[in-house]
Design brief:
By secondary structure, the protein is an all-alpha fold. Helix content is 88%, strand content 0%. The protein has one domain. The protein contains three helices and no strands.
Length: 66
């Protein structure tokens, strides 16, 4: 029974990672203010820790807007 719970937690973590990374991909791809290289850099960062780098991306985007 413990194994099933561990597998469930791992599956939910992977699915959450997938959802957040895909949301970041869409947002970065729609951003017209980034160059091709910058878009690729943000997309690669999303593969590692999407929630953390999405937060950094939003902060950087706010700085560019002001």
């Amino acid at each position: 029974m413990k194994e099933l719970i561990i597998y469930l937690v791992l599956l939910l973590a992977i699915l959450g990672h997938l959802v957040v990374a895909s949301k970041m991909y869409k947002e970065v791809n729609a951003d017209k203010g980034l160059t091709f290289k910058q878009k690729n850099d943000w997309k690669l960062k999303a593969l590692l820790f999407p929630a953390l780098f999405w937060f950094y991306y939003r902060q950087e985007k706010k700085k560019r807007a002001t």
